Amino acid sequence: MKYFSCITAMLCVALAAASAQVASHAPTAMNGIVNTTVSTPPPAPTGSSMQVTGRPVARVNGAILTDRDLLREMLQLFPYARVHNGFPKAQEAQIRRGALSMIEFEELVYQEAERRKMTVPAARIDRAVAEYRSNLGGNEEFKQYLNTEMGGSLQQFRKQIRRSLLIEALLHLEVDRKSGVSLAEARAYYDKNAQMFNRDEAFAFQTISIMPAPTASPELKQKARKDAEEMLKKAKATGSYEEFGLLAEKISQDDYRVNMGDHKLVPRDKLPNELVQRALKMRPGEVSDLIQVESFYFCFRLNAHVPAGKVRFEEVKDQLMKDLARARKEDLRKKLDARLRVDAKVEEL
User: Fold this and answer.
1) Helix 183-192 and helix 313-341: axis angle, to 10°?
2) Crossing angle between the packed helical segments 122-136 and 154-174, to the nearest 10 degrees
3) Residue 26, Cα to own-chain centre: how many angstroms?
4) Is 190 inside any structural domain?
5) So what's the pLDDT on residue 103?
6) 228 to each of 199, 232, 234, 244, 262, how far by Cα in Å?
7) What dihedral angle (degrees, nearest 10) is formed by the CA atoms of 162, 168, 174, 179?
8) Cβ(56)–Cβ(137) under 8 Å?
9) Which pLDDT value is given to residue 259?
10) End-to-end CA distance of the chain
11) Can you tell me the distance from the alpha carbon of 330 to that of 19, in angstroms, rounded to the nearest whole number?
12) In CATH, what number is assigned to the domain containing residue 117?
C-alpha cells in the first residue's frame, strides 16, 4: 500500500527536522527526575568515549547543564548502550547532538513555566513521591536513592519532581493539547493526497516448507519428497488460520515458521508467478497443492486476495489520524523550541 510507505517517509522527514532541534521523546515526571536533574550520574557505558566528570556542557540563561544531564539523556535516546558496551561510534555524535538539544529545550521549557508563574499542587508532588518510592520497592530503597542521588535531601527530590511536572504541564498546554487531528482534517488530507492511497494487488498467505540442503544426497532428497507429501496431507486437513499456523510452527523449515508461517500481505510483483497463478484460482481458506522449487517443497494457505485499487478512507482513518497527530506534535515541539530560543542565551561549552 503506497499510503504506509509515503506517510512513513513524510514522518521521517518531519522527525529528522525536529530532532535537529529537539529530541522526540517527551519528558515525564519520573523521566525528568532521572534524566536531567539527578546529581550523580549512572556509570558511563563500557566502551563509551564519554567520560562523566560533572563538567558544564551548556549554559541556558545562566543555568548550568552538565555532562551528567547529557549522559542521562543520551541513555534515554539509546537505552541499549549498556547492553552494547556503549554508543555506536557511527551514531554517537548524532545521539549526543539530539540529547544536548533536548536538555537545553527542557531547561527553556522549565524557565518559561516559571516565567508564567505556573504552579504544581503540593498534593501532586506528594503523589509523585509516593509513586517513585513504590517503584523503587519501598522505604529502604528510597532512602538509599536519596542518599546516593539527592545528598539525602527529600526537599531536593521534591524540587526535582516539581521541575519535571512544570515541564510536563507546559508541554501539555503548548504541544499535546494542540496536536490532535480531527476526522475532518484526516479526510481532507486523504482527499488532497489521493495518489498515496492507491493499493497494488496483493496476496496474504501462510506457508509450510520442506527444505533439504541443495547438496543433499539423492536418498535425503527422496526422503524430503516423502516428508513433503506427508506435510501436504496434514496441511490439507487443517481448517483454520490457527491450525495451519500451528502446523507450520511444528514442521515447517522456512523462516516464517516462527510467525505461524504468515507472510502477511505481499504485492503480486514480489511473488513467484507459479504461486500467483495458483492463488488466482483459489478461495481464501484453501490450501494449495504441493509446489516444488528446485529441491525445496512447500504449500500455502491463501488468507486473502486484495485487488488493486484505492484504499477506502474507513480502512485507514484511525492510523492516518495517529500519524498526522504525531507529525503535528513534532512540528509544535520544534516551533516551541525555536520560539523559546529567540530571546534566550544558550551557550554550548
Assistant:
1) 100
2) 110
3) 13
4) no
5) 95
6) 35, 6, 10, 15, 19
7) -170
8) no
9) 92
10) 47
11) 9
12) 1.10.4030.10
Are 138 and 239 within one domain?
A: no
Using alpha carbons, list the distances in angstroms from residue 130 to 35, 110, 138, 159. Answer: 19, 23, 9, 15
Q: Mean pLDDT per segment of 10 residues, for the chain of length 349 residues? A: 40 35 43 40 50 86 91 87 78 91 96 96 92 85 84 89 94 94 94 89 95 90 94 96 95 92 93 93 96 92 93 91 94 96 93
If asked whether residues 36 and 116 sit together in one domain, one would say yes
What CATH number did the domain enclosing 205 receive? 3.10.50.40
Grid cell locating 318: 484511525
- The C-alpha cell at 187 is 479526510
| Predicted local confidence at residue 294, as pLDDT | 85
Cα separation, 55 vs 138, in Å, equals 33
Place of cell 516464517: 256
Rounded Cα distance, 124 and 144, in Å: 23
For residues 194, 197, 198, 201, the Cα torsion angle rounded to the nearest 10 degrees is -170
CA 285 to chain centre: 33
At residue 104's C-alpha, the angle toward residues 15 and 341, to 5°, is 85
From CA 286, how far away is CA 303, in angstroms rounded? 8
What is the rounded CA–CA span in Å between residue 181 and residue 26? 19
Is 247 part of a structural domain of the chain? yes
Strand (E) or helix (H) holding 12: helix 2-19
Structural domain including 137 reads: 27-174
Give residue 48's pLDDT.
52
In a domain, 329, yes or no: no
Which residues share a beta bridge with 301? 206, 287
